């Protein structure tokens, strides 16, 4: 097991390196350089050249890359060229928002999806099944921003139950924090719930067809007990895979949801950085997001072993 | 009369209520309808968009909100035809803002302000984005400021003298002002700040604005003398913005690049914290040099990208004041008695720029053909919901240099065809119009395209992401491009950059030696009347050469809750909160 974890870690290194090369080249090849955008409309060629030199952008891209990589390896992600804030600090500042949003969204989606998927599978082809399929389809098809606006109009404006946007750190009170997180979490959670419901249903149906389930039924086991004790754990494998992938994605930030609800998360940090051509910040955030993605996949692999004792890592 | 017939066919042909706005726009543009007809058509589409309503900005909603849908089409049209003057009147006076300026404010209270995007940097000398300036109004003082009529008024400089040759400015500074870190404000501080901007090695974007300054001397603690290489009439107006903002010399020496996130000024409010993407908070400066001010204890700025969400914030009291709302929401917001809308003419303009160095637009007649093919009023009404006003020159109606007599163009396809013939393209031609990917720019591009098509001019739209767009347009690598300028209080800031052959925003390589000469002269003379006369001459030459087609002057919009008192709405759109208070 320990060896397996070690090997997986080592395997991550080339992936991360590749990601960093791609990100570095992409952002530097994108039209629009930071010096021009920092100088804005007043940018004269001389001023741009002076600023490029100051930022080190006049050097060849490979040289810039090696320098950047060198400092990253020393644990220094650099500083934002706009606000001079250390990149690591900027990420750390935004991370709690994104992590909380991801956890809440996953929790909401699982709370909806697992029961709905089980019911749909058990009452196959019933009205309940059709209903859950319909709702799932609706959930996948409804664009995030639209659902967000509807939720804001209903709960924020009409009923006036919840603030329409904004963020409050947990340290200033859990109540106020949840009040502001619940609508974004529902927005993200429903789309995810729709996918998970379908996955839960189909994988449970597959399991219910297996011989050992027939045996269990023949022993006279009740449906509920049988699902809980025998079928569910095996049916959860694909669900875990899907959810794991989604966690990786959610840690990269939910740009639209964060923008509408004015949440200072990772997604908006990245988008703002791209628009401002804040290279060090873009590079730092993308590196971080790739790491988060790799780790969440890794965690999913480890979860398999727990769910299915037949899987051994050696 | 012909037009009216056509519009009746349009309205009569389909049950009026079912014509969607987009549909109506498409048809109207296709038929080349003029503004009043278009307005009538839109009014027929739904009462909410009736352009006759703007005068009711601050009045209770009862009377004006009940605009009937179909029956009022004609009356609405007749009032719409006088819309420009109505807009001018409501703009110039801004009754709400004026009424409350004189009242002494209640001290205390916290104000939350919604901005359209996050601040980029807190170092004013490094700033290039408009939204930064909103926050600077509370953190920093400037040497001078501007008032509602764009007059220069004292701020950190209590008075100034300009030598007869226009090359020496002597400022007398306020006494007793200190920076938030306790450093005294004095002539030496002004010298350090201006020299920081002027030092080429610092590569600061504000340098170009004051590059005429060759020497800054601190004569004594409260007297500063600026020497210029040549007379530069717009200097004072320039010093009312970022170039004139004073930072603590101690902080400049110690913080270096960190000033971009730890600002130290002399302003009415001192910096507390900036959580990027979430909020920026400033608190009352208890030892502000203007005694008794500011009234508010604290101001929080929140970046809210979605315009509709800014309105929601106001309605739910998350925000008490916001900077700009979407054009489509202006009318409905004016009718909302729970909100106050400030609507005055801005300083800026929107335009189409041609690349005059290359075909097809090295041909003046073809540029003029485009200028004749565009219906400016129609664009303002349809794309911007009638919120601004049509324009022909880079000088906005808010400026003292504005001359309404310079208005050579109106939509006239016969003239456009004549110009095409003159340019040797009687059969029409096509070009590529470069745009940013903002929804408004794309809509505007589509409207231009539809109008030009009628004159056999084909505009192919090329849409680029913001920075890529700026990059291309700065390089002059386009046939035609569209843009918006936020505007400057002195007309020089609107005209010189765009129309002088060496101007920084003259991206289409326009050169007319007579225009150059006149523009240099406007900088050299200080008499306003004389300068206005020169700008009129420049405007005539430039509109005839048509290196840019000027389309429209936007409205400057602020929305606030009635409890916010003492806000003075100034055409530069900056929220000066020193005299603002909250009624409780």
UniProtKB/TrEMBL annotation, chain A:
Q: Which GO terms describe its cellular component?
A: plasma membrane
Q: Does the keyword Translocase apply?
A: no
Q: Which InterPro entries match?
A: BPD_transp_1_N, MetI-like, MetI-like_sf, Opp2B
Stated membrane topology is: Multi-pass membrane protein
The protein's GO terms of the molecular function aspect are:
nickel cation transmembrane transporter activity
Say which family it is in.
Belongs to the binding-protein-dependent transport system permease family. OppBC subfamily.
- Protein name as catalogued: ABC transporter, permease protein 1 (Cluster 5, nickel/peptides/opines)
Q: Which organism is it from?
A: uncultured Thermomicrobiales bacterium
